[in-house]
Amino acid sequence: MAGKRKIPLRICVGCRTKKPKQELIRLVRTPQGEVLLDLRGKISGRGAYICRQKACFELALKGKRLEKNLRHPLSEEIIAEITALLQSESERTS
After folding, report:
1. Is 77 exposed, middle or buried (0-12, 13-18, 19+ CB in 10 A)?
2. 9: part of which helix (H) or strand (E)?
3. Residue 9, CB half-sphere, CA atoms under 13 Å: how many?
4. What letter would DSSP give residue 52?
5. What's the CATH number where 25 sits?
6. DSSP states along 55-68
7. Share of the chain above pLDDT 90, in %
8. Which residue in 3, 79, 80, 87 has the fewest CB atoms around it within 10 Å?
């Protein structure tokens, strides 16, 4: 008899709710000090998670929660990349 696999949960930095890891977007600060978008969840480094909703991302930016969790400032390029990703996902679901 096979047991149930445990689903890893993570907390969204924006809305502070627990969700399955696969439903969230991961940002990672690498040991070299750069912040990257980690869609596969495999890059080593300090990670922070946000929901795939624009409102959560805006909350995380407004309160500088992403910067605090990553312990590194966010560049305009990474903000634009996340905004484009969220925009494309919202268009795909509509």
Report:
1. exposed
2. strand 9-11
3. 6
4. S
5. 3.30.1230.10
6. HHHHHHHHTTHHHH
7. 87
8. 3
How many residues would you count in the chain?
94
Model confidence over 3-49: pLDDT tens digits?
788 999 999 999 999 999 999 999 999 999 999 999 998 999 999 99
Tokens of 66: 């992403």
Structural domain boundaries, residue 75: 10-93
Does this model's pTM top 0.70? My answer is: yes
Distance in angstroms (rounded) separating the CA atoms of residues 2 and 90: 37
DSSP string, 18-49: EEEGGGSEEEEE-TTS-EEEESSS---SEEEE
Q: Which two tokens stand for residue 41?
A: 């969840």
d(C-alpha 52, C-alpha 26), whole Å: 10
**Domain tally for the chain?**
1
- The token pair that represents 40 in the structure block: 């596969």
